[in-house]
Write a structure and sequence with these properties.
The chain is an alpha+beta fold and 322 residues long. Helix content is 43%, strand content 17%. The termini are far apart.
């Protein structure tokens, strides 16, 4: 191999040999390397970058580039527009070129983008823990999104419309979605997080659903939600309409509204049958489980961990606030 070739570390879509063959036909693949002190992130542009994090480990593939390959990558990575910047870091026992994004705030991956990275990671045999970390970016609700929603939430985090309620709506909603043909579970989970996030008080609060719908569209505009137009409209409609006591023939919206109505259990109230949209919500076992969760004011432990709420809603913190 020519001594003039530069070592380049790929960690995102350039893990894919087919893509690199199109961009840099003369590039030669090398070894897979681990990077202690770096963390893989999808940013608000919907693409990958690395951030320094002393407790994290990222993985990548070394390519050997010609000068022409490097010029091509500079164009593709938008170096002249400051979309990515070039740095030299230690990788695999030697210096390597890496492209790091200027936008570092986390966001949702572009449609199809993460799937390509996951496929390449599997072909390269990257460790299972690495692939699990990558796959986590497919979740509709990530801790950083929850953190953003909480930062704008006006009410007591331990109130009756706060995060514990959202988590129980999530449990109800995903149960209903699994039993309802055509229901979009990702939209249902996003509804659970967002439907009450724009409440101003714990009472009836007319208009909080419309405010939540407006916030949904703002989150999408800011790159924090990456949904196609149809799914974004569905989520906004579910948030806007959940306070009005209607039913819906749409399976996703029906699951959203029923999930919230089953959570009346936290107030000691049973759902009224004529206000339930889905067949699943009439199921006696579904209602029993929702009643138990709500009357006990249960904090579902596993979902709280997935959403990054374990410490925020820890019982001892609640006790100190009381």
């Amino acid at each position: 191999m020519s001594a003039a070739r530069r070592r380049y570390l790929a960690y995102g879509s350039n893990l894919c040999a087919v893509q690199m063959a199109q961009r840099c036909p003369q590039a030669v693949p090398g070894e897979v390397v681990s990077l202690s002190g770096w963390r893989f992130v999808i940013n608000r542009r919907g693409v990958a970058t690395l951030l320094r994090d002393e407790v994290a480990t990222a993985y990548g593939l070394i390519w050997h580039l010609t000068e022409a390959c490097e010029r091509a990558l500079d164009r593709y990575e938008g170096v002249a527009k400051d979309i990515y910047r070039k740095e030299m870091i230690e990788a695999g026992g030697g210096p390597a070129l890496v492209y790091l994004a200027g936008e570092q705030r986390p966001g949702q991956p572009r449609p199809g983008y993460l799937e390509g990275i996951l496929a390449a990671a599997a072909r390269l045999g990257l460790p299972e823990t690495c692939r699990e970390d990558l796959a986590a970016w497919r979740r509709p609700v990530m801790p950083w999104l929850v953190e953003k929603v909480l930062s704008d939430y006006a009410l007591d985090l331990h109130g009756i419309h706060g995060p514990a309620h959202w988590l129980r709506v999530r449990e109800n909603g995903l149960t209903l979605a699994a039993m309802t043909a055509g229901a979009d579970a990702a939209v249902v989970e996003l509804f659970a997080l967002l439907h009450d996030c724009r409440r101003w008080d714990e009472g009836y609060d007319t208009g909080h659903g419309e405010r939540a719908a407006k916030h949904v569209r703002q989150l999408a505009a800011d790159g924090l939600l990456r949904l196609d137009r149809a799914r974004l409209d569905l989520l906004a409609e579910a948030c806007a309409g959940h306070e009005h006591g209607r039913t819906s023939a749409d399976p996703t919206i029906g699951c959203c509204w029923d999930a919230d109505r089953l959570e009346l259990s936290r107030l000691g109230r049973r759902p009224i049958a004529r206000f339930l949209s889905t067949k699943a919500a009439h199921d006696t076992e579904v209602q029993r489980a929702a009643w138990q969760r709500g009357t006990a004011m249960e904090l579902p432990a596993a979902p709280a961990g997935v959403w990054g709420l374990t410490k925020v809603l820890a019982p001892e913190r609640h006790a100190r606030r009381a």
